[in-house]
Specification:
346 residues, alpha+beta, Uridine Diphospho-n-acetylenolpyruvylglucosamine Reductase, domain 2, Uridine Diphospho-n-acetylenolpyruvylglucosamine Reductase, domain 3, Uridine Diphospho-n-acetylenolpyruvylglucosamine Reductase, domain 1, 3 domains, five-stranded antiparallel beta sheet, four-stranded mixed beta sheet, 8 helices, 18 strands, 22% strand, disordered N terminus
């Protein structure tokens, strides 16, 4: 499902049940009836889902499943430990017309304090194997595990992903990477050979790197409309043979860079994409916002493109800081900052 990127007026996509827009015509009664039918259909589906999906849970707090440690409960929650469980959960939600969301490592998520009205599926399908210079990995495999596996097999190409939290599915969806000023730029899309997807029509399709249309923290998947977004089931990574000592040296350099750049505390990493020929953190810093705090959320005094949860921060606190930074940068520099973080439940 497509998540709204958010803007200065909070016009983000609300994923859940919302009233239908009713034209002011003599057919108003029809629209009221249609809305009631839609709501009844969803309520009926929710009554069935517990009997159709094994191990489904109700009212599970989502904050512990994110790196921000922020977020209310999911109405329904499932940990999918196999590809088959993942596919069944999605198809069931689609058949019952229940809103659903696929959660990886929760490293680029800001979840509403109200939570999510629907089904959240946590991907923990973690089968992976090495075949020559390729690694085949299911969507729920942690990126850190793949970095370790590649190193053990003297395969180069993933060492710059060390320390990036989250799963390979989430990393590919967002084209996760590191900035160009960290030794040199890198993105996971550079290593992708193919991606296997569950399409909205229920068919399983394998696509190549070109089809994914990777860009700066972007992929084709992020541009699909609500209800039509394909779900990543697995990926094939094409790497290169290299000396293990060289790979380990690059990893050591990357770890040191993270220590220098990344502020401590729960966060989602960089909040904003860097504008062309500039850095979001530098622009926010020049606006005098380093250290700015609202509630228990703070723009890091160490790196202004990070917002830190100082303890029990609310999603609304974070949103206010995000919009403050966007507003001040727009006012001073005439630039529009764009979020990397994705929103759920707003």
């Amino acid at each position: 499902m497509k998540l709204g990127q958010g803007d200065s007026t909070h016009k983000r996509l609300r994923i859940g049940v919302t009233p239908l827009a009713r034209p002011k015509t003599r057919f108003t009664g029809f629209w009221f009836f249609l809305e009631r039918v839609l709501r009844y259909s969803i309520m009926t589906g929710k009554a069935k889902i517990e009997s159709l999906i094994k191990n489904i849970q109700k009212d599970v707090l989502l904050a512990p499943y994110t790196t921000f440690k922020i977020g209310g409960p999911a109405e329904y929650f499932l940990v999918a430990r196999t590809k088959e469980e993942l596919v069944k959960a999605i198809k069931t939600a689609q058949d019952l017309k229940i809103p659903y969301f696929i959660l990886g490592g929760g490293s680029k998520m800001l979840i509403s304090d109200r939570g999510f009205s629907g089904l959240v599926v946590k991907t923990e399908n973690q089968e992976c194997e090495v075949r020559g210079e390729k690694i085949i990995a299911e969507a729920g495999v942690p990126l850190a595990r793949l970095v370790e596996l590649a190193t053990q097999n003297s395969l180069s190409g993933l060492e710059f992903g060390v320390g990036i939290p989250g799963t390979i599915g989430g990393a590919v969806h967002n084209n996760a990477g590191i900035p160009k000023d960290w030794i040199f730029g890198w993105a996971i899309g550079d290593q992708i050979e193919s991606v296997t997807l569950l399409m909205a029509d229920g068919k399983i399709k394998t696509v190549n790197r070109k089809w994914m249309e990777f860009g700066y923290r972007e992929s084709r998947l992020k541009r699909y409309p609500q209800g039509e977004k394909p779900v990543i089931l697995s990926v094939v990574l094409r790497l290169k043979k290299a000396k293990k000592a060289t790979i380990e040296r690059l990893i050591k350099e990357k770890v040191q860079k993270r220590k220098e750049k990344i502020p401590p505390g729960p966060s989602v990493g960089c909040i904003f994409k860097n504008p062309p020929n500039s850095y979001a953190g530098l622009l926010i810093d020049k606006c005098g916002l380093k250290g700015k705090q609202i509630g228990k959320a703070q723009i890091s005094p160490r790196h202004a493109n990070f917002i830190i949860n100082l303890g029990d921060a609310k999603a609304e606190d974070v949103l206010r800081l995000i919009n403050l930074a966007k507003r001040e940068v727009r006012k001073r520099f005439g630039l529009e900052l764009r979020e990397e973080v994705q929103y759920l439940g707003f």
